[in-house]
Design goal:
196 residues; duf1285 protein fold; 2 domains; 3 helices; seven-stranded mixed sheet; duf1285 like fold; alpha+beta; single chain; globular
Length: 196
């Protein structure tokens, strides 16, 4: 689900707060300082995040969205993989693709620039910009693109098909006569692939 460019009278911060509320967050959340916590590795308890963004433990899917959202706030990516981290313990999380799914894309105008805002399956809302870049990876065998946005701390969201198709609809040719397409957000151009 997505919207066209929102009215100029709405600030970007107001739009983000509204999208967080629509995503089910009662209030904007503050994230714990997982980057400061360095407990000992407590091992593997069978946690995994599958390609569709669902969370599993030992083959059983998490059924409580609130628990998934809570765990997503203590997820960290290090050079040796993904971890759930508290001040006292650290357990490995196997991630099949990206830990989050981008489930919604919206456009907004801020400071004379188009801003594309992505909402994830765990309630994160991020404006695509130089600090939260968009990247596209094309599968060599199938030719299918996968589009990712950096959410926080090395954690990315892979865009589901509906928001990806919104980006395609908002794309512009890279330059006159070129076959490459890009989207512009926060004054930065992000290539998304070739025109058909």
């Amino acid at each position: 689900m997505s919207n066209a460019i929102t009215p100029k009278t709405t600030s970007l911060s107001d739009l983000i707060a509204t999208l967080q509320s629509e995503a089910g967050l009662e209030k904007p959340r503050s994230l714990p300082p997982v980057h400061l916590w360095n407990p000992a590795n407590c091992g593997d308890i069978g946690l995994e995040i599958r390609r569709d963004g669902s969370w599993w433990q030992n083959g059983v899917r998490f059924s409580r969205d609130k628990l998934v959202r809570l765990f997503s706030t203590i997820l960290r990516k290090d050079s040796d993989g993904y971890w759930l981290v508290t001040p006292h313990e650290k357990v490995v999380v196997k991630v099949e693709d990206a830990p989050f799914m981008g489930v919604r894309a919206d456009r907004h105008e801020s400071g004379g620039h188009q801003v594309i805002v992505v909402t994830t399956n765990v309630g994160d809302v991020v404006a695509i910009d130089a600090d939260h870049p968009l990247r596209v990876v094309t599968d060599r065998q199938t030719g299918e693109p996968s589009t990712y946005v950096l959410v926080r701390g090395g954690l990315e969201a892979r865009l589901a098909r509906p928001p990806y198709y919104e980006l395609v609809g908002w794309a512009e040719p890279d330059e006159a006569g070129a076959s490459g397409m890009s989207v512009v957000s926060s004054g930065v151009r992000f290539p998304i692939g070739q025109a058909a």
